[in-house]
Design goal:
The protein has 144 residues and is mostly beta strands. The protein is built from one helix and seven strands. Strands 1, 2, 3, 4, 5, 6 and 7 form a seven-stranded antiparallel β-sheet that branches. The longest helix has 8 residues. It starts with 7 loop residues before the first strand and ends with a strand.
């Protein structure tokens, strides 16, 4: 949803996501395991309109994203929802293109807070710095 018609606009949103995570061990008998986490994302962005006509629109956007972790699918690693911080904050920036009533939005999301809680980091990862979101996403949709 894009609010405003000027050169600067506000763009809030709500998304349900299913995020795939892949962990590869660095041992001699290394393996790769994948698990999925379900979340609700709430981005709050400011948009700068670069081009805006009745046919096409191009804009830069950036802001913050709050992510609430809902659940983790069953997996062989034993990773559970309690291993995650429930609320994760990220910054984001990107470029959006509108053609007629279609829209495409390319964004990069960079973590501001850690994803896994301290006990999960010690159990699964055993390294000093925590993991943060670093996500590239492409959203396509319709403008109303």
């Amino acid at each position: 949803m894009l609010l405003g018609r000027g050169i600067l606009n506000f763009q809030p949103g709500v998304y349900y996501t299913r995020v795939g995570n892949e962990i590869t061990t660095l041992t001699q008998n290394g393996f790769t395991e994948q698990f999925f986490r379900h979340t609700i994302k709430i981005p709050l962005n400011l948009c700068l309109n670069l081009v805006r006509t009745d046919l096409i629109g191009i804009r830069l956007n950036g802001g913050i994203t709050g992510t609430y972790s809902l659940k983790v699918d069953e997996n062989d690693l034993g990773v559970e929802i309690d291993d995650f911080y429930r609320i994760i904050l990220s910054g984001n920036g990107g470029l959006a293109v509108d053609v007629l009533f279609f829209t495409a939005d390319l964004r990069y999301e960079f973590g501001l807070s850690e994803v896994f809680n301290q006990s999960a980091q010690e159990e699964y990862f055993r390294f000093g710095d925590g993991l943060k979101n670093n996500i590239i996403s492409l959203s396509v949709g319709l403008n109303f």
